[in-house]
User: Fold these one by one.
Assistant:
Number 1:
Amino acid sequence: MLVIGIVVGLVIGAVVGFLGLRAWSNAQRGSIEDRGAAVLDEAKREAEAIRREAQVGSREEAIASRAKVDGEVQERRAEASNAEERVLEREREVETRGRELTRREQGVADREVHLKQLQEELKQAKTRQLSELERISGMTTNEAKQHLLDRSVDLVRHELARRVRQLDEEARTEAKRRARNLVADALQRVAASHAAETTVSLVELPSDDMKGRIIGREGRNIRALEHLTGVDFIIDDTPQAVVLSSFDPIRRELARLTLTKLIEDGRIHPSRIEEMYYSSKADLEDSMRQAGEQAVFEANCGDVDEELVKVLGRLRFRTSYGQNVLKHSLEVVNLAGLMASELEAGVRTVKRAALLHDIGKAMTHEVEGSHAIISAQLAKRYGESQHVIHAIEAHHYEVQPQTVEAVLLISADAISASRPGARGESLENYIKRLSALEEIAAQKRGVEKVYALQAGREIRVIVKPTEVDDDGAVLLSHEIAREIEDQLEYPGQVKVTVIRESRAIEFAK
């Protein structure tokens, strides 16, 4: 087609040139004829003038003048004849080129016909070749395409699994190294002890005789104590001790202080009980305020509003899964501050957010909503910055974290809560968590058995070797880990081990 296009272009150009040259020669011929006529007219006018002059002048001068005019006329005629010869020569050249272009055009047309014949023959040859290939392979064209696509998918899948394995290994190695160094350094510098707190308090008595005085005549003293404090006083066979039971740690502490003062005073009757109760309540409020001030001082994150300090002090008597919330908040402050300084993030911002992130737990029995939202509302009410408020409300993913400080607070909170001995857990929750981990893995295709080990820190998945190959095992471990991360709230890491034909393929989350 390119050759045909070039030849057609040459033909068209030659035709256009021929027509232009012919038009130019016609114009030249007309110009020469006009010039000859003008010369003749001029000569006639000059001859007439000479004739008139000859009539007036001498005959010799008229003859000389006529001879001169005749010479000029002959010269002009010769010039016109030469110009006409040149025009005729040009016309002959144009005619010759026209015949050549016509010949070439005919050749191009013949080649075009031949090219079409060759294309038709090539098309027929391809059709015969395709039919022969289908006969030899025993597959149609569509079947061959599908086979090629399936093979390409297998190759891409294998390459993808290899690449996923390589990237996972590199990312896991680097992330483990950096995270281990960062967290280990933070934990080493914040080596806080943990002791699970319970819902009972024990008050020691100087003697068992004091039990009778606490009960009073017909139980009036113990009824007054329980009515004022809202705490159950358990007086049993325990030697020289009274057990105080209540789920409200502030009430339990208030009852303990009241009973301790009554024992020291020795006078136990309803009016004295009421007096000691209000005295202990004032002392307890002062103690909570001091605890809040001490926490702010230890956090070293700047001044905090007085009302927030009071609410913060109440966390001293609040526990979460047996972990003291105020001690937990201070530990989170230290962990988050250390990690923020290593990452060059906002240390002051993350410390303030860590100190106040659980302050809403002191208000959950008074205000509806999650403690993260309540904490954020309190921080906003008393003038905390937007970065602090966002980190507080995002530490349990009530909103998605958008800042580095929010992510650091989430990490520090999880580290403090998941440290060995930090929190207790019921058997029911423990079994539910293990069942959820096993259920996620068991739903996958090709999984034969699933075992949750090490209190849910590791999952071993045994797959059917006929349904899952090595590459599929890598992708399966990756999928299980991602679903555990998306569906379960689980601090720390869970190692997923996929076992196929005595080979273990691991993916740690």
Note: The longest strand covers residues 447-453.
Number 2:
Amino acid sequence: MSKKPTDFRYNTGSTAVPWAAVGESYNADDIMDVVKFLLQGEGDTYDSAVAEVRGAVKHLAEVGTAPGKLSLGDKVVQLEQEMDAYLGVEDSTFVSCATSGFEIAFRYANLQKGDEVLVPAITFAATMAYPLAVGAKVVFVDVDPVTLNMDPADMERKITSRTKMVVPVHIGGYPVDMDPVMEIAHRHGILVLEDAAHAFGGTYKGRKLGTIGDFGAFSFHEVKNVTSFGEGGILVSTLPFRSQLKKARFLGLDMSHKIQDWLYDVVALEGKYGPFVANNASATEIQAIGLLSQLHRYAAILAEREHNVIQVNNRLGSCDALQVQPLGDGQTRPTYHLYELQVDPAKAGADVRVLREKLATKGVTTIPHFAPLYRFSIIRQLGYDVQRIMESCPVSEEVFLHRFTHLPIYDLSSGQLDYMADAVLASIDEMKRGV
């Protein structure tokens, strides 16, 4: 397999001594390791199929050409163009993960020690990682008791003169009520970063989730609705700064300007309050290929998730001790990344911890995917008054300790969905009877 050098940094023309852009290309055996990882198995039939594919791949390697670019190449460009069309935005930027996208937004805000960032009390730790790392103060906003999303009223109560950003999170893919979040934030001059890690493809009042705030970042980690081979993210922005996102992704490298006797320049990027230094959040061509493949069938994936949620809701909806997954309405469409189930302990006779134990004995796996962030050791280690935070987030405490869990919802047969719903109903019946 010959190399096809294309990288701008090297001599890729027809020369006596070329300099290939990729240091070591992948050969047929390397490729087979990937094939065997993606399509795993064992036994004689599997081994025979692997041998057949190995022969075909070796033949393909003899007539094919190795790529000259493994990161930030044509496939990344294609993905970003298709994301622009799908999301209805400009300058979508493919990054290594959603957390890297968050970091670019935080750097744009020139976030530093003493600044404050509002985050929902219940979400994944990545939402608060960068603010904590630079010494900013994370302020925990209580959640809505139905959706578990950030409560805009509590958000406004917790704004101070030091608040620089607010990060609403579409938990489980259910839309945050973005209108009041945006109105409050912009009235106070605060940047809004939509954590849309769960929300790719959902909508709020005719707009795609993640495209409403000043910044929005999506995750394509392995557990998300679609993935880019295990990691990856898309960052978008509604600010004029969006034209600089690709420089912000890769160290401020500026191909439009060259310093003397060199190929490019490296620049500081202009943030909200002054220049900032970019980091490296590059993504690979293979990641782009993986995401493109799943993006092209995403409509069917979303439809299956919605169908499964409706089936489970129809079976559980008559139980007065349960709050089933909200379905949205004419103005909102969730992504059904997670199925949220809530128990009313007073009507069920016990709380969600008992329900989870009973479901486990029936072979049904459940988990409340997120704990209140302030319960993690890192918050105490950094000097936060955890008891005071708990008291300021009573809804988060109640739903986490007593009410909510998540059910599996995807890649299940109709029979499995019915079994799971019936197991929930049987467990609630046992709880009511005290057995």
Note: The chain has a mean pLDDT of 95.
Number 3:
Amino acid sequence: MRPSVHLVISLDDQNLKVIQGDCCIREFAISTAVMGMGFAKDSYRTPTGRFRVCARIGAGEPGGTIFKCRVPVGLWQPGEAPEEDLILSRILRLEGLDAANSNTLERCIYLHGTNREDLLGQPASHGCVRLGNADVIELFDMVSIGDLVVILPATNDRSTPPDFMSAGNSDSLMT
């Protein structure tokens, strides 16, 4: 049996650390929500606090597998137009352990691969935590159901949309 790990996700640093015992054994670049942190349904924000991995989806599927409603529906090829925010390769589904993030399952907040690997290291998601496809496959193999995930609140204020969204009608995006 492998020793348990826990994950620490930093919104400020846009990284995910895999901790085993007292040691960081791996670090990955990620993207969290472009809209910042938050807990409301349909807010397109990343929740913070304590979570547990409640499902591991995609074992054995090829890298680049496209998931819709957590079901594999096709294969994405690098270089295809990134028009959609695709959920690719693997899904680690999160269950919130705190009162504020208790709706995380209902919100379908995951750790997953992305077709926008070019945006890793900066906020770019619709609320989930995105990783590179090879990285999410590696992480998937390190994590078990029940492992703890901590998403640290941002200390940098990102509660307002980025400048490119403030020009024009961004009110409909702020939920």
Note: The longest strand covers residues 87-96.
Number 4:
Amino acid sequence: MTPSPALLAARPHAPASAPVRDVVEAVPAVLVVDLTEPLAGFPDHREFVLVPADASGLLSWLQALAPDGPRFLVAPAAAFFPEYAPVLPGAALAELGLASVQAGRVYALLTVPDGDVSGTTANLRAPLVVNPVTRRARQVVLSDPTHPVRCRVRR
């Protein structure tokens, strides 16, 4: 089997004669997650996939599996906000099967207003929390008012 031209174009470092196994191993992994509760405004979508959005691995797309489903830009909150330490309700941790927030992955949903990257904000009030083992996830709305809905992202 020969790799598709599109796959080879996406990985220019892989020569056309490279075995498929080598090319496939170079493709970043994706993580399929099931939301225990749908995101606000999207009641029909619970199955999503986290797909790398850049080569650094800092940005990902949270893409619904449904063909017409929504897509959100997300990033690990700690990558941009190292001091961010949300306190999750015990019920949310139990629902996700996490012993602590540190056992999960915490993502911030990002907004890029009018495509202006310099104005990017992160929602720290309602992080997406993922159990990487069970692949269960949910957006947890925090009651702590110190975490803003629109926090400017600076790197």
Note: The first strand starts at residue 31 and ends at 35.
